[in-house]
Write a structure and sequence with these properties.
The chain has 139 residues and is an alpha+beta fold. It has helices spanning 7-24, 29-44, 121-138, and strands at 49-53, 63-67, 71-77, 82-86, 109-113. The chain has one domain: Aspartate Aminotransferase, domain 1, CATH 3.90.1150.200.
């Protein structure tokens, strides 16, 4: 007998489909960049829960977010950039110097990707793994 999915699992399934649909929508460099970053997030934190948060009339698609023992990061597309914001980025080591936005806050740090930017996969995944470890330590 197949086990019924919990409410949280059903919500995660819906969120994953919504994020996949957003990324699959008419593609430009921003959707392609977000899709690649999503692949890296899933590779670095395969147990992370992917969901859509903060849906509102001005942003009906909401914001893709990834959590594991707490919020890891969010991914947003803007006219001129894709922004990945790490909830506890200020506490994370960043030897590759990926953080280039939201640098003055006490908690968050972000990476802005502009058209033509190369994604440094290995350091990005290392940053994700550090975020997972930090969240796990605080749970």
């Amino acid at each position: 007998m197949k086990k019924a999915k919990s409410g949280a699992q059903k919500a995660t399934d819906v969120s994953t489909r919504l994020i996949a649909a957003e990324i699959a929508s008419p593609s430009d460099w921003r959707t392609a960049t977000l899709a690649r970053l999503r692949e890296l997030i899933q590779a670095a934190a395969p147990d992370a829960v992917e969901e859509v948060k903060w849906r509102k009339p001005s942003n009906p698609a909401g914001v893709p977010a990834w959590s594991l023992h707490g919020l890891l990061c969010t991914g947003e597309t803007y006219k001129d950039k894709v922004k990945i914001t790490f909830a506890k980025g200020a506490a994370l080591p960043d030897p590759a110097g990926l953080f280039n936005a939201s640098l003055d806050g006490n908690a968050r740090r972000a990476i802005d990707f502009h058209e033509g930017d190369k994604i440094k996969a290995a350091p990005f995944k290392a940053l994700l793994r550090a975020a997972v470890a930090l969240n796990a330590k605080g749970k």
